[in-house]
Design a protein that fits this description.
The chain is α/β, with parallel strands linked by helices. It folds into three domains: 201 residues, P-loop containing nucleotide triphosphate hydrolases (Rossmann fold, 3-Layer(aba) Sandwich); 157 residues, P-loop containing nucleotide triphosphate hydrolases (Rossmann fold), CATH 3.40.50.300; 79 residues, RRM (RNA recognition motif) domain (Alpha-Beta Plaits, 2-Layer Sandwich), CATH 3.30.70. It contains 17 helices and 20 strands. Strands 3-4-2-5-6-1-7 form a seven-stranded parallel beta sheet, sandwiched between helices. It has a seven-stranded parallel beta sheet with strand order 10-11-9-12-13-8-14, with helices on both faces. Strand 3, helix 5 and strand 4 form a beta-alpha-beta unit. It is globular, with a radius of gyration of 22 Å. The relative contact order is 0.10. Bound molecules: adenosine monophosphate. Adenosine monophosphate binds next to helix 3.
Length: 474
């Protein structure tokens, strides 16, 4: 078995890995670290949970010279949650060497981030919109940035960021080293790689290594009116060390939080209506283990990685099989067993069946103390396929363009709009296209059939203090 020392890492980095308790490299690290240390560009096909952050984070630390000020490496992330998480990881790996890692993301004061950049910032981890903003204000100078990582590139595509990513890449030195990580490789990502990566090595971790296989999965059939009580019962019976309860909307998330709190449970809520400071506080409380139960919307919990999570509870059936896999990937990490429990209303049974087909396993009914009896479904589909529950691919979709009465001047970033629409109207990321944020307005396209509902459910939502008002583009 390969050890971290076999990969030729330096003493301070080996020390950091020892401090953080990693014993041996994960497959993506074993395959990805050597070419990156040789200076090659790489395409990494790996998901959250594979250890991909260290796969690019460790070579970054090896590469950076802490004696030289200024950004030597840039990591672009699609969301601020991932940005914070990646920053924390890279800080850990770089601590013994004295590498300064700065996080820059929207929804937080830009002045503080500008000051942090001026103070050093060997490695900058940022969301696409904020990075571009800081470049335009000449607060982030990338002349000496020789290492660029695109993390979760397919998410960036979904959120409508690819054009901005290209703008950033074209500003960085042409001799830079580039690593692109993406769970899937849709054509636009492939194109981006062809254009901006030089002779890349592809490293791929099959999704069967995904933690999903180590998660015991259950379903609970429950009437809508009984769900709150059922949730309480499940939590009482399971006694999770740490659980994330996923709710479809912010309002639902908040209601659940209140219900559980009023029953005396130690619980917090994480959703898009909280200020960035409040969200960071909640994340920290949960990550440190002080709070055992977190009620969250998907968007808020995106990329949230907590290796101690023992339970994932889907209070509503997830909007797509991919979201299901992504959510339950939060548990059962690195050799730990996890349990995922999904609440199903009668009208949602077909959606659950689509999930069972996707993962190739029947989901066992839950009862207190239940164990899974894995029952394979006849034909096991490849997990990278993306079956559409609501929109079969053979139906050619027509798109409706909507105008939103808020823009950059109101502190809106493309991700905020996508988040607001996914959270309030329950659309998945693929059903949101062509997001354009201008100074005072924004545009977004959604499937025509969904447009009236999106307009109704998203209008009135507040994002970073601005109220969204959606109208069809005549
Ligand atoms: P990632 O896929 O980068 O989000 O990492 C998933 C989780 O695995 C994080 O909690 C990491 O701290 C952890 N991790 C990463 N590499 C290793 C390793 N070699 N050994 C044990 N845990 C790891």
């Amino acid at each position: 078995m390969t050890s971290f020392a076999d990969l030729g890492l330096s003493a301070p980095v080996l020390q950091a890995l020892k401090d953080v308790g990693y014993e041996a490299p994960s497959p993506i690290q074993e395959q990805g670290i050597p070419p990156l240390l040789e200076g090659r560009d790489i395409i990494g096909q790996a998901q959250t949970g594979s250890g991909k952050t260290a796969a690019f984070g460790i070579p970054i630390i090896e590469y950076v010279d802490p004696q030289i000020d200024g950004a030597q490496a840039l990591v672009l992330t699609p969301t601020r949650e991932l940005c914070i998480q990646v920053t924390q990881a890279i800080r850990t790996y770089g601590a013994p060497k004295g590498v300064d890692v700065v996080a820059v993301f929207g929804g937080a004061p830009i002045r503080t981030q500008q000051a942090q950049l001026r103070a050093g910032g060997h490695v900058v981890v940022g969301t696409v919109g904020r990075v571009l903003d800081l470049i335009q204000r000449a607060s982030l100078i990338l002349h000496d940035c020789r290492f660029v990582v695109l993390d979760e590139a397919d998410e960036m595509l979904d959120l409508g960021f690819l054009e901005d990513v290209e703008r950033i890449l074209s500003i960085t030195p042409s001799g830079r080293q580039t690593a692109l990580f993406s769970a899937t490789m849709p054509p636009p990502i492939r194109k981006l790689a062809d254009r901006y990566l030089y002779d890349p090595v592809t490293v791929k971790v099959e999704s069967k290594n995904l933690t999903v296989d180590t998660v015991e999965q259950f379903q609970v059939e429950v009437a809508a009116k009984d769900k709150n009580e059922q949730l309480y019962e499940v939590l009482e019976a399971e006694r999770p060390t740490q659980a994330i309860v996923f709710a479809r909307t912010k309002i639902r998330c908040d209601q659940l939080y209140r219900t559980l709190r009023d029953k005396g449970m130690n619980v917090r809520a994480l959703h898009g209506d909280l200020s960035q400071g409040q969200r960071d506080g909640v994340m920290l409380a949960f990550k440190s283990g002080r709070v055992p139960i977190l009620v969250a919307t998907d968007v808020a919990a995106r990329g949230l990685d907590i290796s101690t999570v023992t339970h994932v509870i889907n209070f509503d059936v997830p909007p797509s099989p991919d979201v299901y896999v992504h959510r339950i990937g939060r548990t059962g990490r690195v050799g730990r067993a996890g349990r995922a429990i999904t609440f199903v209303e009668t009208r949602q049974k077909r959606e659950l069946e689509a999930i069972e087909k996707h993962i190739g396993t029947a989901i066992t009914p839950w009862s207190p103390g239940a164990k899974t009896i894995p029952a394979k479904i006849e034909e096991k589909p490849k997990r990278h396929e993306k079956p559409h529950v609501t929109r079969p691919p053979e139906i050619e979709e027509t798109w409706a363009k909507l105008v939103v009465g808020a823009g950059r001047a109101d502190g809106i970033e493309p991700a905020d709009l996508v988040h607001a629409i996914t959270a309030a109207a329950g659309l998945d990321g693929e059903a949101i296209r062509d997001v354009r944020v201008l100074e005072r307005f924004s545009f977004v396209s959604v499937p025509e059939a969904e447009a009236p509902r999106v307009i109704e459910q998203v209008s009135g939502e507040r994002v970073n203090g601005a109220t969204l008002d959606l109208q069809p583009v005549a």
